[in-house]
Design a protein that fits this description.
The protein has 237 residues and is mostly helical. The chain is 53% helix and 2% strand. Helix 4 packs antiparallel against helix 6.
C-alpha cells in the first residue's frame, strides 16, 4: 500500500493546486524516488492500492474484534501514570536510569503505540475514502478541510504508520527477540522478558539468560525457572 500510494502521489507530487501554495510540505513537486514506489504506472498503482485497501480494512476489523471480545483492550487503554512511566522507559533506554521500570503485559511506550496505531490506521482509511470519492462523499472531504487537506492527512497517517512499524519491528529484534516465537505459539517465558533481563536494545547480543527460555521448557515445567530476585541476577556474560 505504501509503495503504490507513493506511486499515485508521484502523478502530482504536491498538495497545493497548480499555481497555489501549501504551508506544510517543503518538498513540493519533488517526486518520490521510483525505487520506493510500486505499481509501475498510475493505473497499475491505483489497482494495487485499492485491492490492498480491503486487506488493511479487514485485518483491522478482525484485530479490533479480537481485542474487544477477549478483553485485550483493557491492557491498551491509557491510564493515569502512563506519561510518567513512558518517560521512565525513555530514561532507561537512554541509560539515565539503570533499572528497567516495572511493567505489566506492555510497558508504557508499547501501550501508547498499540493504542495509537488503530486510530492512525482509521485516519488513513477515512482520508483515503474521502479522496477516493470526493464528490459522492463531499461532506466527509469537506469535514477534513477539503480535498487538499484530506490528501495531506492521508499522507501524514501513512508516514506515522511506517515510522511506528519500523520502530516496533526494530525494538522486537533489538530488545525482546524471545517474543518472536511467542507470536506464533502464544506462550512466553516471563523470565525472558525485558524487565526480568533488565534489557536495553541489543543487550541479548552481549548477555545471555542463564535459565531456559524455550517454549518447550516452559510448557514442560512453567515453574522451572522462577524470576530472579534482582533484574540482573541469573544473567551471565
Amino acid at each position: 500500500m505504501v509503495g503504490s500510494g507513493l506511486r499515485i502521489f508521484n502523478a502530482y507530487p504536491a498538495f497545493a493546486r497548480k499555481g497555489g501554495t501549501f504551508c506544510c510540505y517543503p518538498f513540493a513537486h519533488k517526486p518520490i524516488p521510483p525505487n520506493l514506489t510500486f505499481g509501475g504506472w498510475l493505473g497499475g498503482a491505483r489497482h494495487w492500492h485499492f485491492a490492498m485497501m480491503w486487506v488493511l480494512v479487514i485485518n483491522g476489523l478482525v484485530y479490533l474484534t479480537f481485542i474487544f471480545l477477549h478483553g485485550e483492550w483493557r491492557d491498551l487503554v491509557p491510564r493515569k501514570g502512563d506519561a510518567r512511566d513512558a518517560i521512565a522507559m525513555i530514561k532507561f533506554y537512554l541509560f539515565i536510569n539503570t533499572r528497567h521500570p516495572h511493567q505489566g503485559k506492555h510497558n508504557a511506550l508499547q501501550k501508547s503505540a498499540y493504542f495509537a496505531l488503530p486510530l492512525v490506521a482509521a485516519l488513513a482509511v477515512i482520508t483515503g475514502i474521502a479522496i477516493w470519492k470526493p464528490v459522492q462523499l463531499a461532506w466527509l472531504t469537506n469535514l477534513l478541510g477539503g480535498y487538499m487537506w484530506a490528501r495531506y492527512w492521508h499522507f501524514v497517517a501513512m508516514t506515522i504508520i511506517v515510522i511506528m512499524s519500523v520502530i516496533h519491528v526494530f525494538m522486537v529484534f533489538a530488545v525482546d527477540p524471545y517474543a518472536i516465537r511467542s507470536m506464533v505459539t502464544g506462550r512466553y517465558n516471563p523470565n525472558a522478558s525485558p524487565e526480568a533481563r533488565n534489557a536495553r536494545p541489543f543487550y541479548h547480543l552481549f548477555y545471555k539468560p542463564a535459565f531456559p527460555v524455550g517454549d518447550a521448557d516452559l510448557a514442560a515445567n512453567p515453574a522451572a525457572s522462577p524470576p530472579p530476585k534482582n533484574p540482573t541476577d541469573g544473567i551471565e556474560l
